[in-house]
Design brief:
Blueprint (H helix, E strand, L loop, with lengths): L5 H9 L7 H7 L3 H21 L8 H7 L12 H4 L4 H8 L7 H7 L10 H8 L3 E10 L2 E10 L3 E9 L18 E6 L4 E2 L2 E4 L7 E6 L8 E11 L2 E12 L1 H5 L2 E11 L2 E10 L4 E9 L1 H18 L1 H6 L4 E9 L5 E5 L13 E8 L6 E7 L9 E19 L1 H4 L4 E5 L2 E16 L6 E15 L5 E2 L2 E4 L5 E14 L5 E10 L8 E13 L5 E3 L4 E2 L1
Antiparallel strand pairs: 1-2, 2-3, 3-7, 4-5, 4-8, 6-7, 8-9, 10-11, 10-27, 11-12, 12-16, 13-14, 13-17, 15-16, 17-25, 17-26, 18-19, 19-20, 20-24, 21-25, 22-23, 22-25, 23-24
Length: 537
């Protein structure tokens, strides 16, 4: 028998291996190298047990140990156990601490969730003791898929995983459930599916990250994560795992404050509903809507656009609605979270935000928002401060263009703080593949290219339509960006491209109509809401 890998020996020693294991037991009787490793584990475990059972430990004990650890590089040695004849703490860190060690020491190390590869919220939750070493794995076609750690919080569940070949070498952790038949799913205790799956990995990394958001799922008490993988690193096979997760511990560490605070500003109503404090994230739940008078006004403007251009074009990409911009202050009045893209155009500063989502409540302009933030390490009394409101509403702006004249005289215009020049309008062919006798399809499209500058804060231009020289309406698909640089007037540079399908030839003259615009208006009166008051759950 060849020598087992270090991971196999470590699992065997800690009782994690599925078979504690006759083949390894027999091998150890004759292999001096492996006997030395096991003896080292036993000595190291006794050393750590004696040390960690001391009544108190100095505050810098963990850091001192880590500072003395010699880095271990599994990829540069053919016989890694030879590399492990180093001080006790270094050997244990290289192998990974398991459940037989003192739990407080394992928490200091923390595994993947203590590294800079995860956000601060996951690191804080790991320090709170919400990480569990599960080491569940499945092997097929010489490839092992291994879930190492699970971090279970009431706001999200995260799993770290590795992919290894038959020699124990770590492979690229890239798994894509969206472009392959691989399935990674989560189900609550009632069998309901949790759809909010996120994944992270990078080339050359040892670990991948899987995360399920549990925002707005406060009733969940337990989860079942299932893996049905059929392709890993280009190899076909079957890798099925099921990981049960209990959320009771994290729920005990989660508090909520019911706010029920309402105000209105510049035609936008705001209802702060709830704030939740969990180890890995804080969540703010609120709703925005048009006030009654504003809603009547906006609805009338929409009806006018529908009569002019048709209902289909008016509602395809416009998204008429409401939102707010705000920051959250600590007890010293310092801004610890900031959600204000209009004030920070060119340098979006959604500082501390992990996720944000808005859901249309079907009534015109009524939106339900849930935004989560990285928690603070120290408990502080936080205060919500409104900066301003946003309204996406119908626009009343048109621009007639003669493409041939643009070559010599680009057409410039200004609209609500946007200074834009139409520099080019041209036809080009786009190619796509299809299943047909002629597999390549050629489709002519019209491209309108613009560039310019943008004041801060100024309106965002939304959906456009093009009306050709025969009076026919065409949808204009918008793409563009705010560049991280300014022009000679101190405005952030912008680029915009409108793409129009269905026009075989470029008209000699056409008119662009702007259907929607998002306006930002600063709050006239300060509105602050303490996030630590209200009924607690």
């Amino acid at each position: 028998m060849n020598c087992p890998t270090i991971d196999k020996l470590a699992e065997w020693f800690d009782g994690v291996a599925e078979h504690k294991d006759e083949s390894i037991q027999i091998h150890l009787k004759t292999c001096k190298d492996c006997q030395q490793i096991i003896a080292m584990y036993e000595n190291d475990q006794r050393f750590l047990k004696e040390t960690l059972e001391m009544p108190t430990l100095p505050d810098d004990f963990a850091m001192n140990v880590l500072n003395q650890v010699e880095p271990y590089n599994r990829k540069k040695t053919k016989k890694p156990w030879k590399r492990l004849m180093i001080p006790a703490a270094a050997a244990l860190l290289a192998l990974g601490l398991t459940s037989t060690l003192h739990p407080s020491f394992a928490e200091w190390i923390g595994g993947f969730f203590s590294t800079e590869q995860v956000d601060e919220g996951l690191r804080i939750a790991s320090e709170s003791g919400l990480t569990e070493r599960v080491n569940q794995q499945v092997t097929d076609q010489g490839i092992t898929f291994k879930v190492e750690d699970v971090l279970a919080d009431s706001s999200r569940v995260a799993l770290s995983y590795q992919i290894l070949n038959e020699k124990g070498k770590i492979l690229d952790p890239h798994i894509d459930p969206w472009e392959t038949e691989n399935a990674i799913k989560a189900y609550d205790q009632d069998g309901n599916s949790i759809e909010t799956l996120g994944m992270g990995w990078s080339d050359g990394a040892d670990y991948g990250l899987i995360e399920f958001s549990l925002r707005e799922h406060s009733s969940i008490e337990s989860l079942k994560i299932t893996f049905e993988l059929v392709e890993i690193n280009g190899t076909k096979g079957n890798w099925d795992l099921e990981i049960p997760i209990d959320l009771k511990k994290s729920k005990k560490m989660t508090t909520k404050a019911l706010l029920n605070e309402k105000t209105s500003e510049k035609g936008v109503g705001i209802h702060l509903k709830e704030v939740q404090f969990a180890p890995s994230s804080n969540e703010l739940l609120y709703e925005t809507y048009f006030t009654a008078e504003e809603k009547v006004k906006v609805a009338s403007q929409i009806n006018t656009l529908e009569d002019t251009f048709g209902e289909e074009y008016v509602h395809t990409f416009t998204g008429y609605g409401t939102a707010i911009q705000y920051h959250i202050e600590n007890e010293q009045g310092e801004s610890v979270y900031r959600h204000n893209t209009f004030q920070d155009q060119g340098h979006p500063s959604d500082r501390g935000i992990l996720q944000g989502s808005g859901r249309d409540m079907e009534e015109l302009g009524h939106m339900k928002w849930n935004e989560s933030f990285i928690p603070l390490k120290e408990e502080e009394q936080l205060t919500f401060v409104l900066d301003g409101v946003m309204k996406t509403v119908p626009a009343d702006f048109s621009l007639t263009i003669k493409p041939k004249e643009l070559r010599k005289n680009p057409l410039s215009f200004e609209y609500e703080g946007n200074f834009i020049t139409v520099i080019k309008a041209h036809k080009k062919n786009e190619y796509s593949l299809r299943k047909a006798l002629l597999p390549i399809e050629i489709e002519p499209v019209i491209k309108i290219e613009m560039e310019g500058g943008k004041d801060v804060p100024s309106s965002d231009l939304g959906a456009w339509v093009l009306v050709d020289d025969k009076g026919k309406v065409h949808q204009a698909y918008h793409s563009g960006s705010i560049l991280d640089e300014k022009d000679e007037n101190g405005r952030f540079k912008t680029t915009t491209t409108l793409t129009i399908y269905g026009l075989k030839e470029l008209p000699e003259e056409f008119t662009l109509h702007l259907l929607s615009v998002t306006r930002y208006e600063e709050a006239k009166n300060p509105w602050t809401v303490p996030l630590y008051e209200g009924e607690r759950e």
